[in-house]
Amino acid sequence: MVAPACILVVDDEPRSVEVIARILREDFEVLSATSVEQARALLENNWVHAIFCDQRMPGMSGVEFLAEVRARWPDIVRMIVTGYTEPDDMIDAINQAGIYQYITKPWHPDQLLLAARNATQLFTMQREYERLSLELRLAPPVVEGRLRQQRERVAGSYHFDSIIRSPASPMCDVCRQAAKTAVFDIPVLIEGETGTGKELLARAVHYASQRSAGAFVAVNCGAIPDDLLESELFGHRKGAFTGAHANRRGLVEEADGGTLFLDEIGDISPAFQVKILRFLQEGEFRPLGTNETTRVDVRVLAATHRDLRAEVRAGRFREDLYFRLTGMVLSIPPLRSRPADIHVLAQHLLDAACARHGRHVRGFAPGVMDVLVRYAWPGNVRELQNEILRMLVLAESDCLGLDLLSPMLMGVGPVTVTPQAPLAAEPTVHDSGTLQERMDALEADVLMETIARCGWNKSLTARELGLSRVGLRAKLERYGIVPDAGKQSLQKGNS
Ligand SMILES: Nc1ncnc2c1ncn2[C@@H]1O[C@H](COP(=O)(O)OP(=O)(O)OP(=O)(O)O)[C@@H](O)[C@H]1O
Ligand SMILES: [Mg+2]
User: Fold this and answer.
1) Ligand 2 centroid to 355 CA: how many Å?
2) Which residue from 28, 198, 307, 322 lies 20 to 30 Å from 313 (Cα-Cα)?
């Protein structure tokens, strides 16, 4: 509960003091003094918000005393109570003491209460104003400090170390090269399939560059038609086209002093290639609807999922633009060609998803990682990220089991071709032997194909083929299917 405001009543006439005090006590804490000396002592020892003071007092007038109060305790709201209609010099005196209100006798109790409420409210507002003014004075360094911390946190999360990879990953070379390139103000082209982390790498380059305090502005050139892309990038003036209701700064200008990331640069039309080329050559551009050129200082990073050299050879991408963009080329290998990364990335992405969604899952059940490593990941890290989130959503224990994997990974989808895991053979129709022999050979092929795809996980294979574990084991023994180096050579027909 907020303590009531405190009001001091000063009058040499004890009865007057008592009458005023009684009225104010309804809403306030009231102190009373019948002399100036007593009033001073109370002010020195109490937190007073407002004063009602009588004008006619022996020794010192009310206005004189309130002038003294103003000098010593300027925050206290001062009111004078007087029985006379005062001449002009009295008004001057009142101004000198900075009196908030003067109340003439005879007063009405409501008038007194209203004056007291307004006065104490004024006191509170003055205090609040002072507090805010003080905060405002302190604000620039505080805000600056917070901004710096925020900037450091963002830069920290886009450091090359935040690109998760195994110690022997080909990504280590890519990151080393990128880190070297970052400090040179040259254009960089990042190649890689969708979801391999091109934008992540581009951000790391930006935050490791001398432009890290500037903006990183990403534009997806592939997703936008030419005219919209032009206005997005270079901005427009009001009325430049139907719907241009106001001036608009382009993203190129937003990136001034920082980095402009042209994503999916391989997808832009030949006409727009010319516009980008002109901008890269001249460092200036013309917003739509103007004749004036604007100059900016940006570093351009670009990315593509296409083989841009092949596009140049095929005549679909301008060679001169290609050379403008490729001060350095960084190529991110697809996820399927770096199986060791799948292990560390899966665990990292699981931990990150758990932290974001407040879940507690330790890791993966045996066999899951084998399936993850064997899958082709056409959507690369983004697809892995989605798969793990999906598993986490479905999880009912603290360990992600094989049963949570999407059917896509369990067979119908693409299967990896890596040196570690040759593509399992499709079942083939056998064209010699008796019907039984041909059926057995086909059954062996189906078993072989399924168990290889399931990463030699017997429960999973049994479930997929509608067999019990014991039944599966009997069939594997019968056909001599074993997960060793010679596993592909089936010893068929030894029943
Ligand atoms: N090595 C990595 N470590 C951690 N996260 C990664 C890594 N590679 C990619 N990611 C994550 O995967 C997702 C896809 O990455 P990003 O958007 O950078 O890929 P991209 O190559 O630009 O994809 P697209 O071609 O579809 O634009 C992002 O959430 C990114 O943070
Ligand atoms: Mg991208």
Assistant:
1) 24
2) 198
